[in-house]
Amino acid sequence: MKDFAILLPAEVQTAIARLEQHGFEAYAVGGCVRDSLLGKQPNDWDITTSARPSQTAACFSDFRTVETGIEHGTLTVLVNGTPLEITTYRNDGEYLDNRHPKQVTFSHRIEDDLCRRDFTVNAMAYHPVRGLVDLFDGRADLTRRRIVCVGDATTRFHEDGLRILRAIRFASVLDFSIEEETARAIHACRSLLSNIAAERIREEFCKLLCGVGAVRILREYADVIGVFLPELSACVGFAQNSKYHCYDVWEHTLHALEQCNTNDLLTRLSILLHDVGKPLCYTEDEDGGHFKGHGPIGTELTASLLRRLRFDNGTSARVTRLVEYHDRITPAEPKAVKRLMQKFTDEDILRLLEVQRCDRLAHAPAHAEPPSALFDLPAVMQSIREQGACLSLKTLAVKGDDLLALGIPAGKEIGAILSELLDAVLDGALPNDREVLLEHVKKGR
Ligand code: ATP
Ligand code: MG
Q1: May I ask the CATH class of domain 393-444?
Q2: CB of 98 shorter than 6 A to ligand 1
Q3: pLDDT in tens, 14-25
Q4: Relative to the CA of 42, which ligand 1 atom is closest?
Q5: CA–CA separation, 64 and 83 (whole Å)
């Protein structure tokens, strides 16, 4: 029954029509149908068809195509510059290693293709004339806002362990609950995630962390997260015994994340990991618990866990430094801010301020007010930028050649003098003026 319509983009309609003109069936399927029914703009449009990959290729011989996963039946066709993934109806058969189907067999029935899909809300297909194919009540689950496995959850997770993480990722991103039986199986099967490639884990986990329901899901599924981030498991229930804190380390982290008002991945990763070093450096005296050195230890842990999850070097380096600096508040004064600007990009400084703001708000109420420097610093930074102030040797008014011309021998001494001059300029002791700086050097000799 077709009691509503999804407006398929012209390219998708073209592709479906083209396949059907050649005698095959074709539907929009999966995430794009789900998102359309939710009134959201889909990220991409996938098409499922009864045509075999070679037949699909023949239908689109006058289009640019990319063989993305031909052994799994997927061909990407560029229609008016829009890439469409067209996949043959598939049965996945038996699974090897909790991840890969032993063999993929192609099918002529859309039913087969829908029942291999992970969740009811992801297992709907839509045709511009025939309407919605919804064999597992996905539409009702969208209305109830819940994630439910297609078929028996435990079986589906044993076929492919990644689905465990996908379930909680979708619950976070869509802000859905998870149906009881599916939830039970997620907890029970969580160790299957240890067989999954780090890249796949990373991809799903990053989406989870940036989802609107992230805090709720991290709290409820900390045991699942702990399979690939055991460093965080160590934080769960770790009491701080400090007047500055009213939560254990994990709850503090979640409260900090709750305060975060951006879905920027780097900021959120930094908040998630800012106190990861705490359980390893707890000490206690008559004043209560202390975590001396949790910054450096957390920095090391962060670097190693991001490497393990195969984050790119840029992301790893930046998040690691945000964790390293999370505990150091910079006064909103030009001298100090310039030093900070030497170390971080302006964007990362704003991230650091957000990490520090969230961290502070998650302290015990009497200690939860963020220092005013956090709010004042961006204006100081902006005025430094506007003044075009010198922040590095690159813009220092004196160069090595100027010093050589003064008769200073090539070598270490030149570098030492330049960095001394830069220091003086950064601190405002000297202006960034060639004559003045050279005069200063001459006087000192
Ligand atoms: P997103 O908006 O994040 O892209 P999506 O639903 O499109 O969401 P994809 O990972 O692109 O998610 O997968 C496309 C579709 O393929 C899913 O909707 C689902 O039907 C199916 N699918 C993907 N991964 C799996 C899996 N591991 N097991 C079963 N079905 C899967
Ligand atoms: Mg998708």
Answers
A1: mainly alpha
A2: no
A3: 999 999 999 999
A4: 2
A5: 9
